[in-house]
Amino acid sequence: MVHFTLIQDGPQLAEAAQHWEKCTELALDLECENGLHHYGTYIALFQISDRHRHWIVDPLAVDAKPLIKVLENPQVQKVFHDISFDFRILNFQYRCRPRNFYDTQLAALLLGREKIGLGPLLKELLRVHQEKKFQRFDWTRRPLSRTMLNYAVNDTAHLLALKDILLRELQVKWRRHWLEQECAYLETVEFTHEDQKYSDLSGFKSLPPSGKAVLRVLFSERDRLARIVDRPVFMIFNNKLLLSMAQNPPISEKFFQELPGVHPLVKREAAVLVGIVKKACSGPGELLLKEAKLRLPQAEFLALNALLEKRTEIARGLGIQGRLLCSEEQARRIVQQKSWQPLRPWQWEILEKDEKVKFLVSIEKCVY
Questions:
Q1: Which domain holds residue 333?
Q2: CATH number at residue 37
Q3: Which residues contact 232 (CB under 8 A, 6 or more apart)?
Q4: How many domains does the chain have?
Q5: What is the mean pLDDT of the chain?
Q6: Is 0.85 topped by the overall pTM?
Q7: Which of 293, 328, 282 is nearest to 307 (CA)?
Q8: pLDDT tens track for 282-302
Q9: Cβ atoms 28, 79 nearer than 8 A
Q10: Cα 138 from Cα 129, distance rounded (Å)
Q11: Residues 16 and 153 grouped into a single domain
Q12: Is residue 191 part of a domain?
């Protein structure tokens, strides 16, 4: 069992933050509410570990600004496992962009490991078993049991040791600079969190303009009701029912009052729901402008496909995924700009050794 300090007041956090600011490295993880038990997406816990001590910060009880300052301090390296979601929610909730970080999942990917989840890596490399039964737990509950807090802190308790092992493997394979360059690049990326839009729903495109209008207003009203009762939107009514109502708009209060499997608020708001559906049906409908897709000239299109095929072949020889060596977006920019600038130096070092790759970028005409 890992001993930790639970921080739930300002003075405690200020004292801990003073210590963290003096550290050269910290392991971090987040536990979030992500529309599974309540309305919205937000951080419910921060877990922090150094080489000797462990902390859990409760942002529902204390202002997390001192910790956010540490995350943005480039003098302290922050070690995460898979930054993608964590950085999106940090930016969304706190406008925080962490500086100087190390992603153990990215390290595992650049080593060509097949099992890149934290649990499998801890089990294989450190013989540490990670519980999975609490992954869908409601982390906004208070008070949290000791069992739950122990589960949470274990996500960072072994992360620095995992970093050490992966770093040694990267050095042996001469790939440490790959990770350093990737993390430096990711510091320039703004990670954004976006909630699902009504136009993202499966079946949206096949709806007539009037159906799209009904879907839009019901989608918005569902969000409003979910916010009122602090419940996930699917607990108001699910996407399948939402799409069904867009296809066959309900225009009677009785329909909503007799709906099974919906939140009681839906039945109480039946008159409001009928009103907005009728208004949407009587309007002009919704016509969304299609985004024009920029098509490449044939020579560039053929060069792009050839480049992607070649990078996949080279990446396979290195034991890594093709997208790591050169993403599709990078490849597209390369053939359009006739330049290697979209690549990081480590990617260029590998690809420029292949004569066919260099030819593909410099060509003016391409026939395959």
A1: 298-362
A2: 3.30.420.10
A3: 35, 36, 37, 38, 39, 226
A4: 3
A5: 92
A6: yes
A7: 328
A8: 887 776 555 555 788 888 889
A9: yes
A10: 22
A11: yes
A12: no
